[in-house]
Every structure is written in C-alpha cells, then in structure tokens.
Design a protein that fits this description.
Length: 469
Amino acid sequence: MLNSCLSFYLKASLKSRTAANRLAPCRAAGTTPQPSTAQGWFEQLLIGQPLAALIALPALGHGLERMKRLARENAMLRNMIDMAADLVVMVHDGEDDGRVVYANDAACRHFGVDRETLLTWRPEDWDVGLDAAGMAQVRARSNMQGKYAFETRHRVAGNAVIPVEVITHPFQHEGECFSVSIVRDLRPHLAEQARRLQAERHSAESEGLRRLDEALRQREDEYRRHIHRLAFFDSLTELPNRSRLSEQLCQAIEQAARHDQQFGLMLLDLDHFKMINDTLGHAVGDQLLCLVAERLQACVRNCDTVARLGGDEFAVLLPDVRGNGDLSRVAGRIIEAFGVSFSLSGKEFFVSSSIGIALYPADSADMDALFKYADLAMYAAKQRGRNNYQFYCSELTERSTERMTLEMALRKAMANDELELYYQPLADVCSGRIVGAEALLRWNRGELGLVAPDSFIAVAEATGLIVPM
C-alpha cells in the first residue's frame, strides 16, 4: 500500500510542478518564483503550490482548478506517507551525492532527530551494515533493476544498531537523479514471528502437533541464525566481518596471555582492485572477492580466521604461532597463491596483494594497536612495490608520524605562501640559445631554509595537495 501511495504521490507531485511551469508566464509580478534547485521544488511539492497567487488569476480557468486538485492530492498523500509506519527517505544522487531531501515523520522517530537535522545527513551517517563499496553496489544494482531490496543494519535513536529491510527505487526528474528508500524495522517482524511460534507451540496437544512444534522451533532457530549472520558475517563472501574478527581477536589476546602464546594479525588488500571494479563492473568485482576469500582460506589452518573488513580489505588471524617464521611462511603461501590467475567472465586476470603483519605480544598487547600496526605494515608493502609482505617495526610508526607532521606543515606552507616557483632555463647545446624553461617548485621554510623537493613532493602527491599547488 505504501509503495503504491508513494509512487502515485511522486507522479502527482511531478505533474503539479509541470502544470505550474506551464502557467508561469501568466503569473503576476511579485508572485512566488519557481524554485531553482531540486530541494526547492521538492519542498514546494510537499507543501503544495502557492495557491494564494494562483487564486488571483481567475482567467486561468480549468488550469487553476487542476492545480488546486493536484495540490490537494499532494497534501493528502503527504499526510498518508507521514502517517505510515515504515520510514521513507528520499536522497539526491546528483552532485551532492546521497544528501537527504525528504524524510517522513517515521524516519525522524527512527533516527531520533528532527527533520531539519535529518536533511543534513547522508546514508553513511546511519547505515553501519554497508561500507562505501557496498553502498556503491546497492546504487548500481538499483539503477540496473529499477527497484532493489536488501537487508542491512541501521544506527538509530539511542545509538542502537538494528536489522532493517530496505527497498530503494531510483528515478530521474529534469535530468537530476533521486532515489526513494522505504525502510522497515525487522525487529517487530521477527518478534512477531517468535510470538506466533510460541503461541503455536502452546496449542500443541497431540503427537502430530508436537512434531509441528519441533519444526517451529527449527524455524525460530533459523531466524536467530539469520540475525546472527547479518550482525557478524559478510553477506557476499560469508566470511566473518570486522565485528566478529574483533570478538575473536579479544579471545585470542586472553588465551595467549593465559598460556604465554604468540599470535599474528595480517591485513591485506588487493592491488589495483578499483580498476577491475570500474572496468568490468561490480558483479565481476564481487566474483573476484569470493574467489579471493576461497583462496585465502586454502592458505591457512582450520584454527585460523579469515575475515573481510570491507571493500577489498581482508584480515587473517593466526593463533598460537612460534614467531615471524610461521607468519612468513603463511604470507609467502598467500603471495604464491595470488600468482595464479583468476578466471572471471571467461577471461584470465592476475591480481596481487599487499600484506602487513603485526605480532602479539612483541608489537603490542592491545587490539587497536595491533590493527594499526598491521595497517602501517601493509602501507609499507605498497610503498615497496606491492605484491609483497612486510612486518611491523617501530620505524614505521616514526615514519608515519613524520609524514603526518610534514603534511600538516605543508598545508600551513600553502596558506602562508611559503612555496616558491623557480624557472631553470633550457639551452640549445649547439647554438647556446635559451629555448625554454623548466618550472621548479621550492619550499622556503624561513629560518629552516629551502626544503629539498624529494622531501615533500611525494607527500603532496599522496595526499592530493599537489593539485592546488
């Protein structure tokens, strides 16, 4: 019912705006101007056209009556949508990618904020079940299918995280792209299922009903397992997600501390994965991620954990190792396994991986620090040409701190005009004439003097500061 009302409401609103545009040349001076932005026209659609100006033009005849009727229908349908139990959110998928332009009352109650605040949000502000790559895949599939339903998790009022079902409808109007999402809280549905199953169990009085009771119990267990998988496992690869890995990492720390053991944490991502995703599409990229998950699992022991952290980033937790030697052998097997081509859409592709490794307790006994150190080591592997693995060492932290300090100083240098441009003449060796000049950028740090280009150009390129320079 809500889908039908919402579709009719949008169509009626668009018709109302089109009729208003046709009548625009007849408007008297001083009347309300037509909105010039997507947000402006949508706000007028929600509250109805400004009829005070139109009533003053009786010569418009049937056109005016039609505008009144459309405005009444808009107001009525808007009230119906605001009274709906399911929340409705409309976002603008244009230059302001993902910005909310409309939300009904149920959406405001769902997220525990007022409408004015909600209109400043984007989907990533509430969706904790999808990362940036996952959201991009949802948009791509929605645009391809015209309507796409999926399950995810929302952070709602009270900072709680709940399972939800989302149905998203993309559409275009006057060259601008929008999408309307209808969101349903799965908790009442699952609770109602549980209550219904419990009521059916109480009515079981015969052997046949007892067998039915057992089947209902199994269905209830399936619902619970489904919720558990949504919360702790990646829906694409079926690997543990970041939340599940964090739980297992805490357990590994406790066990290693109790039994005086060591364990390793590897972080790895695929080199140039974005190029494959952009060239061949998200469907092929998803196939590659599934193949990578299978290949990683084949490289480790049954007691080890392979997890997908999001996008093309994976993690491997290896408990009870003897030291760097064991970790080097596993990392070597992974590098070697990635040396075999992947078959995608009938074609062969080679994808390498960069791996960073941290060791407990030698590097740290803190979970967050181990994640950070493994990530620094992975970044070092990328700097050394990719397709290799690196262990964390304290120099990486020092290098990272120096790089951050240099980046901050470079931003201040740009604001303080400390960057200077020099021109080095280029001469013709035969005639001795100057035929051109090479522009050279130099950083004059005042009392510290000129900074060598090789000290800051790489940081400027990595951070994107090279563009405004």
